[in-house]
Amino acid sequence: MAADEAHRTEPLEDETPVPPRQSPPPPAVYLGGAAVTVGGLLGALIQLLIGAVPQPWSTVLVAVGIGIIIVQLLWSLFRVGAGRGGVRSTAFAVVAVAVVCSFILGFLLRPMALRIYDRLYSCGDPVELTVLVPVDGAAWFQEAITEFNREYGEGECRAANVTAYSAPWPEVEKAMAQGWEPPAEGEEDRPFEAQRDVGPRPHLWIAESLAQVELADARLSAGAAKDKYEVFEPEDAEPIGRTPLVLAVPEAVLDTQEFNGGDPTADRDLNELIVELGDRYGTPVLRSDPAVSTTGLLFFRALSAQGQAALAESRLANAAASTGIALSPSDTDLLCELARAQGANPTAAVLTTEMALAQYNTGRALGDGCPGADDMRSGLVPVYGTGLGSLDYRGVRLDWTDDPWAERRSKVADDLRSWLAGKGGGAYPEALGMRSEDYERDALAGDYRFETDFDVATDPPSAAEFEALREDYGLSRLPRTVLLAVDHSETMNEEVGGGRTRFELATDGVVAALDYLGVNPADQAALWTFPVSGSGSHEPVFDMTADPPDDVAGLLRATPTSNGVDLHQTVLDGIAELDATGGDGSAAMVVITDGADSDRSGTTVDDVHEDLAEHQANLYLIAVGEASCRSAVFAGLDEDPRVTCLEAEAEQIQTTFDSLFNQLWSGR
């Protein structure tokens, strides 16, 4: 005992006892438990918020929660590793956790990162721009606009989405008179409605002459938009290019037969050239309809200036009758009809434009009704005349209303207008077959034997002269006799929308058509319905007259409904009626049918073709409802060049009549 006490060592006064080593408490790494650590409390709060907030914030909260878990794990691993000396295993665990968590975070945050990238660096919304182009050359203008869409902008970003559609000038003029306004309350059933029957309001309009621009401004100033806003100023219409009017003749007539001494430039009167082609060379001359086509009206102007309008109209009408090609609403349609009727080497000449001839020569499609061919040429070469004039294309930017995109739209419209005009070294307008304002014998698309050094006359008509020409044409043209035949079979009584039947809509179209009668006092009309019970094919509503009865709609409603349809025999009887009427003018039959019933009579399509070949009447078929001109009912008839088939959906029957009879009877 004493020995033990003798050997006991006493601690030094400055020595502190060391407590035994203890392991650290386990980390709180879960979000749902009742952890007392700060991380646990934050995790619990985040878990509550995740279900209460919308995306993308719920994703952010999930990422924050994962971040808290990572921090806790790393803190725990560092402490555990330091306490046990396992540095190597700790580093491995840290790397493994970091990699796994990076993948998780990357997956969760990717949608948000893409949104941020799109907002900061991706392409903005392209400017929407609608362009109204002329019917002539519409397909080429649309191709040019497609190319503009591809090239406009920077890098991969598309800066503009430009779309184009076409409409004939008479319809554009009426749309301008309405200010492209929707119908007012109580006027929803008006016969013509701009946005329905023409198209959406354009932001850029390509007009064929300054006269059209001035007339459009006059219609807007007097119409629905006059007190709302100013759409454009005529002086702001920028020139795009021009194309001379030409007399296109078969190549052999100019070269072999030496028409005009073989010279492609003539300083003689147009009427003299037309007479020489017909009398000496047996070459009829065709022209697009002056009632619709600006080109046709300018040729009428050239004939009127020489005091030969009436004589020339008679000769032109006879030429159309001899070839079986009805008056076409555009140069494109005229050239297509000529190629269809006479092939690649036509025997007729055409009054047209250098641009229309150029576009046709390329062999590229000029629209759905005029497919192209790689080896196509018109078979015609141009003869230029010093007094024929030209089309003068103008780009008109239209500001309809105040909208937040107005400034951007204006810039795109101006850029497109300049691009089409060739400013900045572009390929246009020569790529359209059009001459630029500063044209210097540059190559034109479709150029075949063009006189590129010919000086194009710049003498556009004024708006007043343009209107006077239309009125003069209506009086000077030959009278026209038109027979209308309306299908009143059972299927025409079916409702097609708005509670109205096809027959009721067709009745409205007939009334609208007869409104054009009377521009020329010698014009006449007759009205039939078909089929009828018994042996006959039709029932007269009124006979041929220049003064139809007042209540045509009531007379049509009173006609009985019959079963079946006798279309082919009705056409034969109509041609006979037109032939019996006689007269020095032109004749046409217009048939309105839904094509729902097959003609089961003994009269065939071939019988109709043979009868048309023996007479000078033209046949127009208006397919209403779901009927298509490609259907078997109409396709066989439409193979004849004297037959024109028009499709009219239920809401467009009146518009179709309006357009057709503007050609047949108007000129205004």
SSE layout and pairings?
Blueprint: H1 2-7, H2 38-50, H3 57-84, H4 87-121, E1 127-133, H5 138-151, E2 160-166, H6 169-177, H7 194-197, E3 204-207, H8 210-222, E4 238-250, H9 251-255, E5 265-266, H10 270-281, E6 285-287, H11 294-305, H12 309-323, H13 331-342, E7 349-353, H14 354-361, E8 380-385, E9 390-397, H15 406-420, H16 463-476, E10 480-487, H17 502-514, E11 524-530, E12 539-545, H18 552-557, H19 567-581, E13 586-593, H20 605-614, E14 618-624, H21 632-638, E15 643-648, H22 653-666
Q: What does this protein look like?
A:
There is one protein chain. The chain has 668 residues and is α/β, with parallel strands linked by helices. The protein is 42% helix and 15% strand. Strands 1, 2, 3, 4, 5, 6, 7, 8 and 9 form a 9-stranded mixed beta sheet that branches. Strands 12-11-10-13-14-15 form a 6-stranded mixed beta sheet, with helices on both faces. Helix 3 (57-84) runs antiparallel to helix 4 and helix 8 crosses helix 16. The longest helix has 35 residues, at 87-121. Mean pLDDT is 81; it is low at 1-16 and 23-36.
